[in-house]
């Protein structure tokens, strides 16, 4: 267990800063919409922190996955209780990542304002010793790629034990037929839309494996920050308000498409912070070997342009929903 110094060792300014960051994090960790917007606003302010843009685009995907559950087709496939459990899985994973990552981003922000590294305060937000080292390294060496990958590594470990390995989610999600049906549920696919109508992205087999999720994050990042593609993704994020509905991007390449997934805030309640406190925080990096392979260049073994994949996926879901509805 990581030891946290007693509060009396802090200066008055440090205590004020810690409370300020806690308040800001609580404000923006309200739901998927507020998290997505907070990540992107931060990236616009600190474009050297690439992970913030990656997080905003991945968070958009989480919102789309959530809204699929209450759209036109998924209620025909899945019972309400199952859909609620899947929503909570998406919600708790993304809440945990934001709760861990946003204080890191804010401490960097206030460090730049004060022109003094303050990453020794990360421990007061239950951030891993691994990330404290990585932020200090970035402050001194400005290795943007290394920080990006380190944050990907960290976020996947942050959710691994509390969500992926937690008995509740193992029983109700990851050991169920629904999980093995995950390709239809978009569990393991991240899409990066553009205003021109093209949709890029990547997916992973073996979502429960932390190393494969890290590799997926790296592959998505390599697409997102590709010199030729980045302007299109940034244009989409700047122009497109995130509502949770897949119509956010379907409208760009499906001209006759009608909205068949709802606005997130019309169908899902705000989850109170107390409901997320199911476990004690642990430093995942304590005694854990940091793999050099995590920092290797990712390899794309499949096409990254996914327009046809998307159309095929929608047809599969619709056919399956219709068949199930007719047979009932």
Q: Would you write up a description of this structure?
A:
- With 328 residues, this protein is mainly α.
- It has one domain.
- The protein has helices at residues 12-28, 32-45, 50-68, 74-77, 80-114, 129-141, 144-164, 167-174, 177-180, 182-185, 210-224, 230-239, 247-253, 264-267, 307-327, and strands at residues 189-193, 199-203.
- The chain has a two-stranded antiparallel ribbon with strand order 1-2.
- Helix 3 runs antiparallel to helix 5.
- The N and C termini lie far apart (53 Å).
How would you summarize what this structure contains?
By secondary structure, this protein is mainly alpha-helical. It has one domain (7-327).
Number of domains: 1
- Strand pairing plus helix content: what structural class? mainly alpha
Measured between the Cα atoms of the first and last residue, the distance is: 53 Å
Residue windows where pLDDT falls under 50 for at least 5 positions: none
Largest sheet: 2 strands, antiparallel
How many strand elements?
2
Count the DSSP helices.
15
Mean pLDDT, to the nearest integer, reads: 92
Rg over alpha carbons: 20 Å
Strand order of the largest sheet: 1-2
| Helix-strand sequence | HHHHHHHHHHEEHHHHH
Percentage of residues assigned to helices: 55-70%
Which term fits the overall shape?
A: globular
Report the sheet-strand fraction: under 5%
């Amino acid at each position: 267990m990581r030891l946290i110094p007693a509060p009396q060792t802090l200066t008055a300014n440090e205590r004020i800063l810690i409370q300020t960051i806690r308040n800001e994090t609580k404000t923006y960790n309200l739901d998927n919409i507020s998290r997505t917007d907070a990540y992107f606003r931060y990236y616009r302010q600190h474009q050297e922190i690439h992970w913030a843009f990656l997080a905003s685009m991945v968070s958009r995907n989480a919102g789309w996955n959530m809204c699929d559950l209450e759209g036109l087709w998924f209620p025909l496939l899945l019972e309400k209780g199952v859909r609620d459990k899947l929503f909570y899985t998406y919600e708790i994973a993304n809440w945990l990542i934001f709760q861990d990552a946003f204080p890191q981003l804010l401490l960097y922000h206030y460090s730049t304002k004060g022109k003094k590294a303050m990453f020794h305060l990360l421990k007061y937000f239950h951030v891993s010793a691994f990330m404290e080292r990585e932020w200090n390294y970035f402050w001194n060496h400005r290795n943007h790629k290394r920080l990006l990958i380190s944050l990907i590594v960290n976020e996947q470990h942050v959710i691994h034990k509390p969500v992926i390995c937690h008995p509740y989610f193992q029983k109700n999600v990851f050991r169920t037929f629904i999980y093995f049906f995950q390709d239809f549920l978009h569990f393991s696919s991240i899409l990066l839309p553009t205003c021109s109508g093209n949709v890029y992205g990547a997916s992973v087999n073996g979502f429960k494996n932390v190393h494969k999720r890290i590799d997926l994050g790296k592959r998505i990042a390599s697409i997102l920050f590709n010199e030729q593609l980045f302007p299109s993704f940034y244009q989409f994020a700047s122009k497109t308000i995130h509502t949770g509905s897949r119509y956010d991007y379907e409208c760009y390449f499906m001209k006759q498409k009608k909205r068949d997934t709802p606005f997130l805030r019309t169908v899902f309640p705000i989850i109170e912070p107390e409901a997320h406190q199911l476990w004690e925080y642990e430093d995942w990096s304590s005694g854990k070997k940091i793999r050099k392979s995590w920092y290797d260049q990712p390899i794309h073994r499949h096409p990254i342009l996914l327009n046809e994949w998307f159309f095929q996926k929608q047809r599969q879901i619709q056919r399956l929903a219709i068949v199930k509805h007719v047979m009932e």
